[in-house]
Design goal:
The protein is an alpha+beta fold and 114 residues long. The chain has a single domain, classed as Alpha-Beta Plaits, CATH 3.30.70. The protein is built from 3 helices and 6 strands; from the N terminus they run βαβββαββα.
């Protein structure tokens, strides 16, 4: 593994977590992970629910980046799962990023060795 970084996703669509984890059963739990490619994976840390009716939720993740996996591959994977969802914001390593392929990939370049 090359390194890791935190991801935070604010959304109003509860399917976001399921899309990122692709669980076998119908539950999402802290510590669950999904492999993106080779030894690169995303690990679910939990969700913070904001008070108020209809408020967005914020899920927290750790992205573990493996050797030889490009920002392009990781960025495409993340973008494909978020593009059709009601996402308010995406943070990668504390930096707020537009939910588009190019912005995600540019930010992920800092965490990959390609």
């Amino acid at each position: 593994m090359v390194g890791s970084t935190k991801l935070r996703i604010s959304y109003r669509d509860r399917m976001v977590n399921y899309d990122l984890l692709e669980p076998d059963d119908k539950r999402v739990a802290q510590g669950m992970s999904n492999t993106i490619e080779d030894d690169t994976r995303i690990v679910y840390e939990g969700t913070k629910i904001r008070k108020g009716v209809g408020g967005p939720e914020i899920s927290e993740w750790v992205l573990q980046v493996g050797a030889g996996v490009s920002a392009s591959v990781i960025g495409n994977w993340i973008y494909d799962r978020l593009k059709d969802r009601d996402v308010e914001f995406l943070e990668i390593g504390g930096e707020q990023v537009e939910v588009d392929e190019e912005s995600i990939q540019e930010t992920l370049d800092k965490y990959t060795d390609d």
